[in-house]
């Protein structure tokens, strides 16, 4: 998608990651701003199901034509699924960062961590600053 | 106006015509091959011909002849000459590729390196028969030692990256000798990518240190990450933002107090030759990229050299052998290879390094002298600041603000953020359009902490007229983009190939030509 978009139903981390919380689970990915800054993504190197990830620490790498970058976890938890399509079609991260470009699904370790994340308005404001 | 700026095409993506050079699709030398065609025919040897399998054991013979191209001499000459004209190099034009120090290499040094007594020396020659070559290497070690402000030098590492690896292996050996086994190496977030890569290769964990608002090392962040488990801090000074860190003495003190070493990445040495020395700043190990400051050809993967200079306490661990000078007899010193180094980390490579590289660099250092090297660095800093000032005016100042606005050393970093927001033009588009003006673009998208970064290093060998025409070209491209950003988005138009499919090349690389 070529226009900036920050859905209201997501929570945002200052390192340009989003989390969609669904009960005790959450789906994670990178924001429109992150994929736009990276440029076209050519490779996704994710964790394995069963891995533990921790908030504010890298859990995956994305490679674009510009650089290789860490993907920072907005929440801690155990990985229950990694998007299987990104191996062959990492461009989904650019085309649909909040849909088919999702990265992992986790079982949330500490629901209280979500309180530190931003809503869409706060995240958008942080980009304007 | 310099040679580059008169070829500005007013082309748009719709009307762009293929240039004759673009239409002339390159064929490889293999595609040009015709069976039986020869560049040379050897005279009869005058001795009886014998079957190959009588001379070479059957199990060592190939099953089929190698697939070598069969072409005539003029075809070979034209093929490579044609390829060379499709290249952009320092003999073609301005090449302000940030952090690469693309300066003109004087022809004198090529001539000296080509002298038969240097170029025909066999690498396995005994030291007593290669006294001149060893003396040259010893004197180059001494010169680099003086430039770096550290007493000992090894010429063995054969690239900057191998110098980094050698430095980290030295760090490990030095720490182990003290009975310590730290696991972490600190690198600033402005570091060249090779730093963390070398750290991982040497078996350490890389830990990033943040940058403060004035572009230097964030001292609080450094303090919070320094403990007894830190083997060393790797630093480039001036850093990749082109800024000299004024806190370097304090940084060195903090690291040394925790038992760590200080490693200097010599990537940006061209800014400080004869002005400041890494040894005086407190660094223990330095690598020097001879291809940057000291008159070596760049690129193509070699041959290169990445000598390291070290302090007294690190010296026992240097690679083996070392080139040494001994008193000799009758007042004539003798030069030798010293293998008796029990604490050495061992060899970094076979033989002593790429000797022609040493000859060129030594010739360059001798021809400039200490004063000349200092003037070269002063010129590099002056040129960078002149261009920085020129690009702070007009449209460049508006669309391409500087990341950290202060006097710089040899390079500076602009941000294409406002250009992208207001004109819809990415830094990559600007870089591609610069090609149509006959210049090599600056480094793009590095360092990553500057949005849409454009990193410019003009070097000392460029004239004011060249710098002006580059600044004029940027202004013209931005003015053009205000009217029609599509032009830059479709660039380049005049190069041997147009815009390449970088995504396709990364995702679906064709690594082997079909035979």
Number of strands of chain A: 9
Helix content of chain B: 25-40%
What value does the Rg of chain B take, in angstroms?
A: 26 Å
Number of helices of chain A: 3
Report the major sheet of chain A: 6 strands, antiparallel
How many domains, in number, for the residues of chain A? Answer: 1
Side by side, the strands of the main sheet of chain A go 1-2-3-9-8-5
CATH-derived topology of chain A? OB fold (Dihydrolipoamide Acetyltransferase, E2P)
Give the strand order, joined by hyphens, for the main sheet of chain B: 1-7-6-5-4-2-3
Largest interface: A-B, 12 and 11 residues
Largest sheet of chain B: 7 strands, mixed
Q: Tally the beta strands of chain B.
A: 12
Q: In the CATH hierarchy, what is the architecture of chain A at level 2?
A: Beta Barrel
Q: Kindly state the mean pLDDT of chain A as a whole number?
A: 94
Cα radius of gyration of chain A in angstroms: 13 Å
* CATH fold description of the domain at 149-287 and 306-352 in chain B: Aspartate Aminotransferase, domain 2
Strand content of chain A: 25-35%
What's the helix-strand series of chain A? EEEHEEEEEHEH
Our measurement of the CA-to-CA distance between the termini of chain A, rounded to an integer number of angstroms, reads: 23 Å
């Amino acid at each position: 998608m070529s226009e900036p978009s920050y859905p209201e139903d997501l929570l945002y981390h200052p390192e340009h990651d989003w989390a969609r919380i669904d009960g005790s689970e959450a789906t994670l990915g990178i924001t429109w701003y992150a994929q736009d800054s990276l440029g076209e993504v050519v490779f996704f190197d994710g964790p394995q199901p069963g891995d533990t990830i921790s908030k504010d620490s890298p859990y995956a790498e994305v490679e674009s034509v510009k650089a290789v970058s860490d993907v920072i976890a907005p929440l801690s938890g155990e990985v229950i699924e990694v998007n299987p399509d990104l191996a062959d079609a990492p461009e989904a991260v650019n085309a649909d960062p909040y849909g088919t470009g999702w990265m992992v699904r986790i079982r949330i370790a500490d629901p209280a961590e979500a309180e530190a994340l931003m809503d869409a308005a706060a995240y958008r404001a942080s980009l304007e600053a | 106006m310099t040679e580059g700026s008169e070829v500005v095409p007013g082309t748009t993506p719709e009307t762009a015509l293929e240039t004759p050079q673009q239409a002339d699709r390159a064929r490889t030398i293999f595609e040009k091959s015709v069976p039986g065609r020869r560049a040379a025919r050897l005279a009869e040897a005058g001795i009886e011909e014998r079957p190959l399998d009588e001379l070479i054991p059957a199990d060592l013979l190939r099953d089929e002849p190698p697939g070598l191209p069969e072409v005539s001499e003029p075809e070979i000459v034209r093929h490579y000459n044609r390829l060379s004209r499709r290249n952009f190099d320092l003999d073609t034009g301005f090449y302000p590729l940030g952090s690469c120090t693309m300066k003109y290499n004087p022809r004198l040094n090529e001539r000296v390196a080509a002298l038969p007594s240097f170029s025909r020396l066999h690498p396995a020659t005994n030291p007593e028969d290669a006294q001149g070559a060893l003396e040259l290497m010893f004197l180059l070690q001494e010169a680099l030692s003086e430039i770096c402000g550290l007493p000992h030098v090894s010429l063995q590492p054969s690239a900057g990256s191998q110098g980094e690896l050698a430095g980290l292996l030295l760090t490990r050996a030095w720490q182990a000798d003290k009975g310590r086994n730290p696991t972490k190496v600190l690198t600033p977030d402005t570091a060249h990518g090779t730093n963390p890569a070398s750290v991982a290769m040497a078996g350490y964990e890389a830990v990033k240190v943040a940058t403060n608002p004035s572009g230097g090392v964030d001292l609080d962040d450094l303090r919070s990450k320094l403990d007894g488990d830190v083997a060393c801090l790797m630093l480039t000074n001036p850093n990749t933002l082109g800024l000299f860190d004024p806190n370097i003495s304090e940084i060195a003190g903090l690291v040394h107090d925790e038992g760590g070493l200080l490693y200097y990445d010599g990537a940006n040495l061209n800014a400080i030759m004869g002005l400041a020395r890494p040894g005086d700043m407190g660094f223990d190990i330095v690598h020097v990229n001879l291809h940057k400051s000291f008159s070596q050809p760049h690129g193509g993967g070699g041959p290169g050299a990445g000598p390291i200079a070290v302090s007294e306490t690190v010296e026992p661990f240097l690679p083996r052998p070392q080139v040494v000078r001994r008193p000799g007899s009758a007042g004539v010193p003798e030069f030798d290879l010293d293998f008796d180094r029990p604490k050495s980390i061992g060899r970094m490579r076979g033989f002593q390094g790429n000797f022609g590289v040493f000859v060129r660099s030594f010739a360059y250092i001798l021809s400039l002298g200490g004063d000349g090297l200092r003037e070269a660095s002063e010129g590099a800093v002056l040129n960078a600041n002149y261009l920085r000032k020129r690009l702070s005016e007009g449209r460049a100042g508006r669309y391409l603000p500087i990341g950290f606005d202060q006097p710089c050393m040899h390079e500076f970093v602009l941000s294409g953020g406002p250009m992208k927001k207001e004109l819809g033009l990415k830094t990559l588009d600007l870089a591609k359009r610069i090609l149509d003006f006959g210049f090599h673009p600056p480094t793009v998208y590095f360092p990553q902490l500057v949005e849409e970064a454009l990193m410019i290093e003009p070097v000392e060998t460029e004239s004011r007229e060249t710098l002006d025409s580059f600044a004029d070209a940027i202004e013209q491209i931005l003015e053009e983009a205000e009217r029609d950003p599509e032009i830059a988005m479709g660039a380049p138009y005049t190069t041997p190939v147009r815009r390449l499919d970088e995504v396709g090349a990364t995702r679906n690389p064709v690594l082997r030509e079909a035979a």
